[in-house]
Specification:
By secondary structure, the protein is of the alpha+beta class. It contains four helices and three strands. The model has no long low-confidence stretch (mean pLDDT 92).
């Protein structure tokens, strides 16, 4: 079984969030949440929240209530770019400089480990 959660229009650049997503890709759920909780990156809070949402989605599925969090892992996690808000600021010699405020979408898929499925 697997479940998905998406955080859309997160006000951080995709490049910075991808650094955190790469840290937990393919890891066990407990290890990933522990690593994110003690990480110094701002993006780790948003990624952790999205992972917890995916776990909740898996638990609320039909037949998903019997799955323990120890039996889950992060199957897929990726970060896509979202819209860019453009703002203007006064530049030198009477010019206008553009400021790009970037945002991203975070997608997480959490699944049950295969070896536990075979034992049942």
């Amino acid at each position: 079984m697997e479940a998905k959660a998406i955080s859309r229009h997160v006000r951080q650049s995709a490049r910075k969030v991808r650094l955190v997503a790469d840290m937990v890709r393919g890891k066990d759920l407990e290890f990933a949440l522990n690593a994110l909780h003690f990480s110094n990156k701002k993006a780790s809070l948003t990624v952790e929240k999205t992972i917890r949402s995916a776990v909740s989605n898996l638990m609320n599925q039909e037949g998903g209530s019997g799955i323990e969090p120890e039996d889950m892992y992060i199957k897929t996690i990726f970060v896509d770019e979202a819209g860019i808000a453009r703002r203007w600021r006064a530049g030198s010699m009477g010019r206008a400089s553009i400021i790009r405020k970037r945002s991203c979408h975070i997608t997480v898929v959490v699944a049950e480990k295969e070896n536990k499925k075979k034992e049942k």
